[in-house]
Amino acid sequence: MKIVVAYSGGLDTSVLLTWLKETYSAEIVAFCADVGQEEELDGLEDKALRTGASKCYIDDLREEFARDFIFPMFQAGAIYEGQYYLGTSIARPLIAKRMVDIARLEKADAVAHGATGKGNDQVRFELTAAALAPELEVIAPWRQDRFREQFPGRAEMIAYAEKNQIPVLASAKKPYSMDRNLLHISFEAGILEDPWFDASAEKAREMYVLSVSPEEAPDKAEHVELVFEKGNCVAVGYHELDGLLSDLKISDVKYDSDNHARLNPLQVMRVLNKLGGKHGIGRVDLVENRFVGMKSRGVYETPGGAILHFAHRQVESLTMDREVMHLRDSLIPQYATLVYNGFWFAPEREALQALITESQKNVTGTVRLKLYKGNIITAGRKSPLSLYNPDIATMEADPTKAYNQNDATGFIALNALRLKVAARVHAVK
Asked: Does residue 121 carry a catalytic annotation?
């Protein structure tokens, strides 16, 4: 038997790898996806091989993640339950997709993951596998009684690692768990399981990675300009952009006539993460409804995503037809739920995406934002495809005579008709 295992090199997945090899008498192929977690990957292949894997794949999926997953989702304006930018949710189908690809390449019999039986990730991984490779077996050790009985806690995992000479650094566990990618970083469990715990308090500041607290952000606001074409951000303008690009090791960038740097989706996310983090933007603390039925408290940092989402809406406000916008907005909860629940590769999500793509064909323009102490403030927007006509909207005389105010009399009368009828009927009662 051959199993492809999602592997990070940490204690949990290292124990998982050895346990699967031992329990299933299987050949193990390790797979680690780089989706922007910025973790040290040097030596990971050697560690996987010393842990018992016959091979280890380490794939840089950041460009695909930004281009094919983050950007289409932000075109949809998707936010789960009005707060969550879906950072973890949107990464899982990509990781699972690549794991399925490797399983087929290796002619493996199964894939395995270390997601717990209480969370959403198990669903996201397995629904992706079902949609893309229904012939593959999926092994989830945390849903097996024998695995949970053998490893009821971290101490048993450390002892198992020592006994089996598994090369892991067993350090004291942080009082919370964290997961990072290009779009966000999430914190949950441990001290955060108490919804009354103040994650914005000064004593909790060392937890955050991507952003400073709003209190510690610069006292002077900064402006940034985002250029959109068909609903996607394609360029960024900022007064210290050259230095920022140099710090991020982004080179060979072309500039447009307005001195905006033309960037690919991955570069856009990296730049906006830095700018948002500098100004304490994108921190979210919420209690969300998991797909499996329970409520869960999570704290998230999404600095670049918060800016992108806000800016995108500003360009839409100028360029989208009212009814198209309202139709798309009515679908946001459904779209966000599909992403959250793991149905990225389901036909209904793909059908919705086709509508989203059509709705974005005229969403082209530039928005100027002011970033200040956790706030994103609109400082201007413009578009060659703007539907806003100041001559029509003005309170002054309309030189185009496109709108006759007298027409509003009949418009109001017709809309008031049902209200008057109902009022008279109810008054009789």
From this structure: yes
